[in-house]
Structure formats: C-alpha cells, structure tokens
C-alpha cells in the first residue's frame, strides 16, 4: 500500500474520452490517446490493500488486483505486468471491454467511488507491450500430444495459449477469415482497435499455436473426423444462436440481427469493403435490446450518419445508485450507466422521440409496420410496467426504415453440424452439457465459454478458457497439471 491515505485524499478519475464531435468522425477508440498514464499511478494509490479483497471474488479470473495496484503506484511496470499476466492472458481486452465487476466488489465502493481497477489494468497491459514485457513464452519441450480448439474468441484463444505453453501442439479452427471471433467482427473498433488483437495473435504464433481460418468445423471438416485426429478437442464456438422477436411484421425487409449488421461495419474498418451493404446512413434506425450489443449498434449507426437512432430497453430505467436492500455490496448492481455510444447519441440528439441518451426504457415492441413493397417503415411499441405488462394508452409508432435486433444469444449454433456429428448432449436451454471437469459426454471432447455456460462476459470467457485448458492438460498428462483453473463449470457471478 504505497499511500495509506490515497483513498481519502485522491478522488476517482477515469480515462477521459475524446470530444464527441471528433470521435464520431472516425472508428478509433473513444479515449484520449495517452490520457491514461498521467493519472493511473495516483489512481492506483486509492487501493486500500484491504485484508479481504472482494475484488478477487468478484473477478472470475482471480486477478491479483491489490498487488498490481501497489506496483503501479510505485511505477514498477515490469513487476505489475508479471502479476497481471499471471492470471489473465489478455488484459488489454478486458481493460477495454469488461464491465468491471471487480469495481463493484471493491471494498472502497461501500461508501465511495471504487478504485479505477479497469483503467489500471489497461495501463499495465499497454505499458507491457510498449516496454517489451509481453514477449512470447514458448514451451521448453513438447509433450507430443495434440489439441484442436474450435473457435477463436476469448475462450478459445485463452485455452489455446495455455495449452501451447504447457507443451501441447494446438491448432485453432475459426470459421471466419480472420482470428478473433466476436472480438474481431462483433466488437466495434471504437471500443477496441484490432491491433490489440493482432499482436496477441502474433505472440501466440511465435509460441507455437497454429491457426486454421476460413474453416467451419461441421461443414468444411467433419467434427467426428477431427476428433479422431487429435488427442483432445475443445469446443469454444460461443453462443451464436441469436434470439428472435416473433411479432407481426418480422418478415419485412430492413429488419436485421445485430450480428448481421456489426460484422459488416467491422469489415469496412478492415478494408474489405468500401461501404457496408447494411449501412445506416440516412436511415431512421430503431435498435431493439438494451444491452451492450445494442449500444454497439448505436455507436456504429451514429458513425454511419443515420438520420435518427433510437434504442429500446424493455426494463425500466435503473437508478443512479446501488439499491442496498435488493442489490447489496459486493454484487454487481443494475445502475443507470452512460456508455460512450449513449453519450454520443445524447449529445448529437439522434433520437427526438427518446430521452436524453437515445434510449426508451420500459418499451416493448408490438409489431412492425411496412409499405407496399414489403419494407419496414415503422415500429409500433407500448410502455410496460415492472412485470412487462402493457400500460393502456401508451401505444405509439416510431419511424423506422432499419431495425436491428439485439436480444442476446441462446446457445451454440446448431446448424454447423458439430453437435450432431459428435453426438453431444445439450442442456434444456440449448447449451452444451458438461461435467465438473468441463468434459462432454464424448470422451476427449471438452466444452467451454458461452457455448456451454451461455451468454456471459469476456472476463468469464477468458476464465473458462484457462480452466478448460487445465482440465485438458490433466487428461493428457495422466491426472496432474500446473495450469491454473480459476473457475469451475458451475461457478456463477455474485448475484442476489
């Protein structure tokens, strides 16, 4: 604890964002370049190094947060990077994309603004790359055992890196033309520029991990045949089966799933196409779904110069502070949060029919309205109460010639053939069934990440990847493994 009075004398200060008018003209990250390092050491001083650090429990990775906070406050960046990477393969991803449940569990957050753990984490990761502290770590010797990892999202990449470093020969199979999964084509560049992903991939290549892109297991390669070629298989395909909205008018043209829309915008940033065929430019856009994916659609539509953008959230607007009775510390509370995209939409006044930040809360879609050519032209909605029951007299119609459905995901895609070809058992909710060691009902086949857990956070995805790697390593080495297993398959976040 470098400054015993830091939490008393230093107010919370976060990484500043660039001005809205500037950042909506490009796809660069929303934060001020270089704006984090000048403030992060004093922010790390706010960590109390408390005797029972609940931030550890709130983070599924078990990040050693007080330790690297203390090291950053002393500006020992090398040691801080070592402690951070001891529990997290990709801290520059979580430092940008994770909603930081660790901060909700910060002891200081009982009666003050929490330590800016996420910002400190990101600063350490970026400094590690700048100063050469993230060198490849290839194994000293190979085990002679082989592993196929299906899917290159955070779970698949974490599992692959851990198993490669343990000495196994690992091949990652990815159906897209580039590695990264949702981090590549689902997360917009203004939230995480793709060079962060590229340098991790190059690090993994240098360590010995092999990548097979444009290969859909179940179609291009039979899953059972793949199983016969490897000593173990890890299924980390994510939860890509999107939820539908079965209301009248769903068949109209102009209504798209968020994951049909977002990848095309990312391909524009990659230089694959000059303009997205689903561009929101000049259109009245309504986004159905109030989560992070909906916010990603919002920020993307703003940058594409939509005529208007409105986001519908079926839940009532949460409060600005924690409900101590229903959501006591250290659980992750439902709060009114203003993402960068909501800040942009609010300042630019993109949604005349909505409140300050383009969101309409407690709003449920009744039907879509179309024209004679079968294109969507409006969305009919109604206000709902806390029980999602329609409030009489609150129906209205929003103009919409483009609708994006951001309703979440139910489990792995059943259409690729993996489940049927391997004969995998499923849970009633559609996820892949597994035992306490992450193993499926098929010998040698393991399941991890959203494909088995269900839709979750990136920090849980990385934790799953590290944990399944330990389980696979135990199988391949005869029962022992030095790889860490931060969570079990049945662990869940701290909730009420």
Automatic annotation (TrEMBL):
Signal peptide: none
Pathway: Amino-acid biosynthesis
Pfam families assigned to the protein according to its UniProt record, in alphabetical order: Fer4_20, Pyr_redox_2
InterPro entries reported in the protein's UniProt record: 4Fe4S_Fe-S-bd, DPD_II, FAD/NAD-bd_sf, FAD/NAD-binding_dom, Glut_synth_ssu1, Glutamate_Synthase, Helical_ferredxn
Gene Ontology molecular function, alphabetical: iron-sulfur cluster binding; metal ion binding; oxidoreductase activity, acting on the CH-NH2 group of donors, NAD or NADP as acceptor
The keyword Oxidoreductase is assigned to this record: yes
Domain of life: Bacteria
Annotated 4Fe-4S ferredoxin-type domain residues: 38-69
Keywords, alphabetical: Amino-acid biosynthesis, Glutamate biosynthesis, Iron, Iron-sulfur, Metal-binding, Oxidoreductase
One Gene Ontology biological process: glutamate biosynthetic process
Protein name: Glutamate synthase subunit beta
Organism: Streptomyces sp. R17
Lineage: Bacteria, Bacillati, Actinomycetota, Actinomycetes, Kitasatosporales
């Amino acid at each position: 604890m470098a400054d015993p009075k830091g939490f008393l004398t230093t107010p919370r200060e976060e990484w500043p964002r660039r001005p809205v008018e500037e950042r909506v003209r490009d796809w660069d990250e929303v934060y001020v370049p270089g704006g984090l390092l000048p403030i992060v050491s004093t922010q790390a001083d706010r960590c109390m190094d408390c005797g029972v650090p609940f931030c550890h429990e709130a983070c599924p990775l078990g990040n050693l947060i007080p330790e690297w906070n203390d090291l950053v406050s002393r500006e020992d960046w090398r040691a801080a990077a070592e402690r951070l990477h001891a529990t997290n393969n990709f801290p520059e991803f979580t430092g940008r994309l994770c909603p930081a449940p660790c901060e909700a569990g910060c002891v200081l957050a009982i009666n003050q603004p929490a330590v800016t753990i996420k910002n400190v984490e990101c600063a350490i990761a970026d400094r590690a790359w700048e100063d050469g502290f993230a060198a490849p770590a290839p194994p000293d010797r190979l085990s002679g055992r082989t592993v196929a990892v299906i899917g290159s999202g955070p779970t698949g990449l974490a599992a692959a890196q851990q198993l490669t470093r343990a000495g196994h020969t690992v091949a990652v199979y990815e159906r897209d033309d580039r590695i990264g999964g949702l981090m590549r084509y689902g997360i917009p560049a203004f939230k995480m520029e793709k060079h962060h992903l590229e340098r991790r991939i190059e690090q993994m290549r240098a360590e010995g991990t092999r990548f097979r892109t444009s290969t859909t297991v179940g179609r291009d390669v039979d899953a059972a045949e793949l199983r016969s070629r490897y000593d173990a298989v890890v299924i980390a395909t994510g939860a890509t089966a999107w939820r539908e909205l079965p209301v009248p008018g769903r068949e109209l043209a102009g209504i798209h799933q968020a994951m049909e829309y977002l990848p095309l915008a990312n391909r524009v940033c990659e230089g694959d196409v000059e303009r997205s065929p689903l561009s929101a430019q000049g259109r009245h856009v309504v986004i159905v779904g109030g989560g992070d994916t909906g916010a990603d659609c919002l920020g993307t539509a703003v940058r594409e110069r939509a005529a208007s953008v409105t986001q519908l959230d079926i839940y009532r607007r949460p409060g600005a502070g924690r409900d101590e009775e229903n959501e006591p510390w250290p659980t992750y509370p439902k709060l009114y949060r203003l993402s960068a995209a909501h800040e942009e939409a609010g300042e630019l006044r993109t949604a005349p029919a909505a409140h300050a930040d383009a969101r309409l809360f407690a709003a449920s879609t009744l039907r879509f309205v179309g024209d004679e050519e079968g294109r969507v032209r409006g969305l009919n909605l109604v206000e709902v109460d806390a029980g999602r029951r329609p409030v009489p007299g609150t129906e209205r119609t929003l103009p919409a010639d483009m609708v994006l459905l951001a309703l979440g995901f139910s489990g792995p895609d059943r259409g690729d053939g993996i489940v049927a070809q391997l004969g995998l058992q499923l849970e009633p909710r559609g996820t892949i069934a597994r035992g306490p060691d992450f193993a499926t009902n098929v010998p040698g086949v393991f399941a991890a990440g959203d494909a088995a857990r269900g839709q979750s956070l990136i920090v849980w995805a990385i934790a799953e990847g590290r944990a399944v790697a330990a389980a696979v390593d135990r199988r391949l080495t005869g029962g022992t493994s030095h790889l860490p297993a931060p969570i079990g398959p049945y662990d869940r976040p701290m909730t009420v």
